[in-house]
Amino acid sequence: MPTTPRLRADSLTLAYERRTIARDLSIDIPDASFTVIVGPNACGKSTLLRALARTLRPTAGTVLLDGQDIASRPAKQVARTLGLLPQTSIAPDGITVADLVSRGRYPHQGLLRQWSERDERVVRESMAATGVAELADRTVDELSGGQRQRVWIAMALAQETPLLLLDEPTTFLDITHQVELLDLCARLHEEQGRTLVAVLHDLNQAARYASHLIAMRDGQVLAAGPPGEIVTAELVERVFHLPCRVIDDPETGTPLVIPRARVAVAR
Questions:
Q1: 155, 134 Cβ separation under 8 angstroms
Q2: Could you give the CA distance from residue 107 to residue 69 in angstroms, rounded to a whole number?
Q3: Of 7, 61, 15, which is closest to residue 219 (Cα–Cα)?
Q4: pLDDT digits over 38-74, tens only?
Q5: Which part of the chain is the ABC transporter domain (predicted)?
Q6: SS3 for 65?
Q7: What confidence tens digit (pLDDT) does each residue in 105-123 have?
Q8: CA dist., res. 94 & res. 139, Å (int)
Q9: Cβ-count burial of 248 within 10 angstroms (0-12 exposed, 13-18 middle, 19+ buried)?
Q10: Distance (Å, rounded) from C-alpha 238 to C-alpha 222?
Q11: Which residue stretches of 16-105 are H helix?
C-alpha cells in the first residue's frame, strides 16, 4: 500500500515580490530516492527547492515534512531532518575549512549535548568523502571556486540529515569533480538510504544518476518518474525546445540525449 512521502508540496504558489514563478504546483519526493529537478533557466527549479527547504515561504499552499507544515516546525528540528546546499554561500572571513564543516553539526548540539567524538568523526568523514581533508587548516577565502564548493558540500554532509537538498551542486566543479560528487550522492542514496533532491543543468547527468526525475517548464511539472520511463525526444523538445534523439547510454543503459546536428547552410 502506498505511503505518504516524508517531503511533499501541495498546491504551491511561489513568488518573489510581485513576480509569480509557479502557481498550483504539487510534487511528491519519493522516500529514499535520488530525485533530480531539471528544466530550462528561470523555470522555477531553484525556487521550488528553496520552498522545500523552508528558505522561501509560499504565497499559497503548503510544504509538508513528515505530514506537518514545515513552516510550523522548530528550526533546529527541521535542520536535524533536512539539510540544504544553497546555490551561493558566503563563509565568514578567516574561517578555516575544518571550522566551517564543523558548523554542520550545530543542529545536533544543545545544552545537554556538546561537541563529541562522534561529531569529530562525522566532520572528518565528510571532509574525506568530498576530497577536502588536506585543506582542513586553510581558510575558505583562499580556496578556488571548486574547492569552496566541495567544502560547502562537506558541511551539508556533516549535518547528517536523512533528507539532503542540493541546488546546482556541480557549479564551479570540473568534469572530474562533477562525476565524483554525483557518485558520492549516488552512494548516499544507495548505501545509506538518504533521500536526495538536486537541481542539475545537465540533463544527461540527471538521467544517469537520478532514480526519480522531475522535468519543469514555466513553473509547472511536465513529467515526473524514473528517467528510463519519461525521458523521450518528445519530452526534451517540450521542456527545452531542443530537437534531439534519445538513445541508451552505452555505459549505464540510462537515457542519453543527443542533440540533432545543425543543418549546414549551402554556399
A1: no
A2: 20
A3: 15
A4: 999 989 999 999 999 999 999 999 999 999 999 999 9
A5: 7-243
A6: strand
A7: 988 776 556 778 889 999 9
A8: 6
A9: exposed
A10: 8
A11: 45-52, 75-79, 97-102
Q: Can you name the CATH fold of 7-227?
A: Rossmann fold (3.40.50)
Q: What is the dihedral of CA 231, 220, 37, 153, to 10 degrees?
A: 170
Output the pTM of the full model: 0.89
What is the rounded CA–CA span in Å between residue 181 and residue 177? 6
Q: What is the mean pLDDT of residues 115-139?
A: 92
- pLDDT score for 199: 96
What's the one-letter identity of residue 171? T
Q: Which residue has the cell 545537554?
A: 112
Question: Number of H helices and number of E strands within the chain?
Answer: 9, 12
DSSP class of residue 211 equals S
Q: Report domain extents, the chain.
A: 7-227
Which of 160, 5, 196 has the alpha carbon at shortest distance from 80? 160
Q: Kindly report the three-state secondary structure assignment for every residue of 214-267.
A: EEEECCEEEEEECHHHHCCHHHHHHHHCCCEEEEECCCCCCEEEEECCCCCCCC
CB atoms within 10 A of CB 99: 16
Rounded-to-integer distance, Cα 94 and Cα 172, Å = 21
User: What is residue 182's three-state secondary structure?
Assistant: helix
**Separation between Cα atoms, residue 154 and residue 156, nearest integer Å:** 5
Grid cell digits, residue 52 = 522545500
Query: Position 153: which residue type?
Result: I
Please give the Cα distance from 241 to 234 (Å, whole number).
Answer: 9
Residue 179, judged by CB atoms within 10 A of its CB (0-12, 13-18, 19+), counts as middle
